[in-house]
């Protein structure tokens, strides 16, 4: 029993690392562009299919396939910005939300038409790491460490570079940022490109762990929303914390009940947070 | 240096400025006064490119700027300090100053400018690692002005720098502005505190309901009976 | 003149089966009526700014309540419909009250309802002993029976679905004429101002939300009766929830005929592509519809029918001025 709990906790924390990356991307986009990217998880799903195709059909090495996916998803993110998000910048928030939700339909069916409804996976045989009674899959561990490393790099960029400073300034006061000589259009494009590259990275981390199917993105988009709302929309630190809370809650609940109950639990937490504390656990005051 | 020629500016359907003309010469400090809603802030927002002009032209150092976006205008040497300072609350003092030197040509001189600013405002040096939203109102205003200097501007637009500050702090703030003036910057300032602002200024404009009602040198302005009655309370 | 305009499409719909059309065409028309019924129900609240992305919850509750009651207790779906509708309305009351009480509006309301739809879908899967889980279950066949709302002849169900749709449109008109409409319109425009005018906002919002949920649940029962098969992924969750909202938005949720027109366009498009390009590319129609939807929101925020109507109205007004 204790061993089971211990392993669930550990795996929850590992999952939390990748979820934190997902939440970071959504939060960054929300904080800077003020748009809720409804189809973010679906972008991860497309990235996974891309890796699968490169790996299984063209026999590209996994690392190279992952690198291609990151670049391709970055371009994909930029394209989405230019074609969908930019024309919607001035309109009501609700219309932005609905248009981006419309993309869910486009992306899921795109995957359906190209790859079909079956599960597609990249087979990777990695040993299991055991520490006493703790058993961790190497792929999960690598994803966790990789996600933390990427988060560290992003944190450094946001803190120490002019571009990072400009991103944070735009998130806090767009008009004033323009008076500093910052071009919001460029920063928005850059943000969506980074956000896109992140979906490629997450896809690379997920590929050895999960098989992908057209609706794969759905549950992760919802999961990412839960995390983002839990931490406070646009609050990067809150999102980081929220990712680990949700990672642990769902994996512990999944061990003791079932995956559905775990997901229901997460969704109920989400609804309660939206109702009672919409500013999130740490309060949303712009991307810090 | 700055020539505003007959501009009309709108907020949606509402016209805020009518055929407005105004000039700022090299190293000159010009103030615009007038009641709330006269269009003073609107004028500054039009010059810095936050609002478009429907008619007329704005020229800066001989170049037409009324069609440029705000971030391009900063690069030409106009720095706008918006009302209330508008520092970035979740950036530190140092980061706020650094973002002031975001434009490419200012980055090389950023460290030198930072040193000068810390000399000019020792208070900011003390607080450089604090988040801007922990500063007092006066400090925030100083930070905003200091931030504008970081872009290496020729002309500084100040929007009501003294609003909401205690009288003692206002005195200090005007000292800072006069120090900046003495360094050779041109300044266009919107101010409610007409008496103090006039002391600093070379010339002044009175705006009412989106039009220029009066203009003249500091001396002419302080002699004008309408100004003395309505704005100086004499 | 304008009063009698709706008679035209209605009589066309009434005559349609008499033209000896193929059962296939009747089938498509019936599907359009059922989903238009649901989309119209969705618009009852959508047009007042209460954009729900969780109506799958209500059709799912309706369909599963009536379906399970029928299979296990031989309860007539007419009664099941009222029971399911009642349950859906109860859920709407609970969630709506919490949302309006805590001031959840706009995009937060949309996100919250999205989660609600997903919860119901997950619950349906989780209770797999009773519901058949992801695979769903089929309704027992009883041949042609008005009591059990099953027919061997497609024409019967065609008229039933048409009747329901007309009822939903009449209900829309009734809401338009009621005091509720005035209050809700004021709320949709400016909630704070409406509140100071003494409009008890929560009361009216709750009422329209419950009506919408009840009617949507009836639609769910209708659909389940028609296809005699229930599945959590077609009757609840994110997919169907978005589908319902998008059909209404595509047509124009602010116009009486908007949701019907939107549903018609989408179902026909889907069928056209399915027939011409085969089941393998069934996703193509969905892609086209998704792209159409996104472009529409960008270029025609009032929906296809809604924008058309506005243009006509403007033309009509012009000569007078």
Can you give keywords for this protein?
heterotrimer, B: four-stranded antiparallel beta sheet, 27% strand, globular, C: 321 residues, mainly alpha
Give a written overview of the molecule:
The complex is a heterotrimer of chains A (288), B (234) and C (321). Chain A has 288 residues and is mostly helical. Helices cover 75% and strands 3% of the residues of chain A. Chain A contains eleven helices and two strands. Chain A has helices spanning 2-33, 40-57, 62-85, 93-115, 138-160, 162-172, 174-179, 184-206, 216-231, 236-256, 259-276, and strands spanning 128-131, 134-137. In chain A, strands 1-2 form a two-stranded antiparallel ribbon. In chain A, strand 1 and strand 2 (134-137) form a beta hairpin. The relative contact order of chain A is 0.20. Chain B has 234 residues and is an alpha/beta fold. Helix content of chain B is 39%, strand content 27%. In chain B, the strands form two sheets. Chain B has a six-stranded mixed β-sheet with strand order 6-7-8-3-9-10, sandwiched between helices. In chain B, helix 3 (93-100) runs parallel beside helix 7. Chain C is globular. Chain C is mainly alpha-helical and 321 residues long. Chain C is built from 15 helices and two strands. Chains in contact: A-B, A-C. Chain A binds chain C through residues 36, 84, 87-88, 91-99, 101-106, 108-110, 112-113, 215, 218, 222, 225-226, 229, 258, 260-261, 263-264, 267-268, 270-271, 274-276, 278, and chain C through 51, 53, 98-99, 102, 104, 106-108, 110-112, 114-116, 118-119, 122-123, 125-126, 238-239, 242, 245-246, 249, 281-284, 286-287, 289-291, 293-294, 297-298, 301.
Structural class of chain C: mainly alpha
SSE pattern of chain A: HHHHEEHHHHHHH
Q: What is the CA-CA span between the terminal residues of chain C? A: 21 Å
Give the biggest sheet of chain A.
2 strands, antiparallel
Low-pLDDT runs of chain A: 284-288
Strand content of chain C: under 5%
Largest interface: A-C, 43 and 41 residues
